C-alpha cells in the first residue's frame, strides 16, 4: 500500500491508477474503521488527515481525466476532516523519487527542489 507524495502528473499511468485504487482502500479503512492494514505505516500516517487524503484523491482524479480515464468513484466529502496537508512520510520525498526511478517505469521523475509539491493544499 502506498500513497505517493509525488505530483500526480509525474506518475506513469500504472502508478496513477494503482494509487487511486489503493487510496480508496485506505479511505475505507479509515472512514469505516476496518481492521485490514489499519496498523500499516501508510495507514497510520493518514489518521487525522482525511482532508489531505481527499485532496490527494482529487489530484489523482484530475490527472486521470486529463488522460481520458472515466472516474466514477467519488469520496464522500463529509468524511474529509482533520488536517488538509500531509507532513509525515514513510519515505522522504527524495526516497520516493528514487524508488520510482529504480522501478524503471515511465514516471516523469526529476529531482529538483522546484519539483516538490506544496504541503498546504486548499480545501
Task: Offer a few descriptive terms.
4 helices; mainly alpha; globular
Write the layout of secondary structure elements.
Blueprint: H1 13-31, H2 41-44, H3 50-66, H4 93-103
Care to describe what's here?
The protein is mainly α and 123 residues long. The protein has one domain (8-108). It is built from four helices and no strands. It has helices at 13-31, 41-44, 50-66, 93-103.
Major sheet description: none
Number of helices, where a helix is a run of at least 4 consecutive DSSP H or I residues = 4
Secondary structure tally: strands = 0
Q: Please indicate the percent range of residues in DSSP E strands (runs of 2 or more).
A: under 5%
What's the rounded overall pLDDT mean?
91
Helix content: 40-55%
Order of helices and strands: HHHH
Assembly classification: single chain
Q: List the uncertain runs.
A: 119-123
Structural class: mainly alpha
Gyration radius from CA atoms, angstroms: 14 Å
Give the CA-based shape. Answer: globular
Termini, distance in Å?
25 Å
Overall structural domain count: 1
Amino acid at each position: 500500500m502506498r500513497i505517493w507524495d509525488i505530483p500526480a502528473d509525474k506518475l506513469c499511468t500504472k502508478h496513477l491508477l494503482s494509487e487511486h485504487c489503493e487510496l480508496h482502500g485506505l479511505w475505507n479503512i479509515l472512514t469505516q474503521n476496518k481492521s485490514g492494514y489499519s496498523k500499516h505505516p501508510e495507514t497510520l500516517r493518514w489518521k487525522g488527515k482525511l482532508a489531505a487524503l481527499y485532496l490527494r484523491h482529487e489530484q489523482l482524479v484530475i490527472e486521470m481525466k486529463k488522460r481520458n480515464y472515466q472516474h466514477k468513484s467519488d469520496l464522500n466529502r463529509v468524511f474529509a476532516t482533520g488536517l488538509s496537508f500531509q507532513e509525515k512520510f514513510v519515505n522522504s520525498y527524495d526516497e520516493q523519487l528514487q524508488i520510482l526511478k529504480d522501478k524503471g517505469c515511465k514516471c516523469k521523475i526529476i529531482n529538483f527542489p522546484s519539483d516538490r509539491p506544496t504541503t498546504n493544499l486548499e480545501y
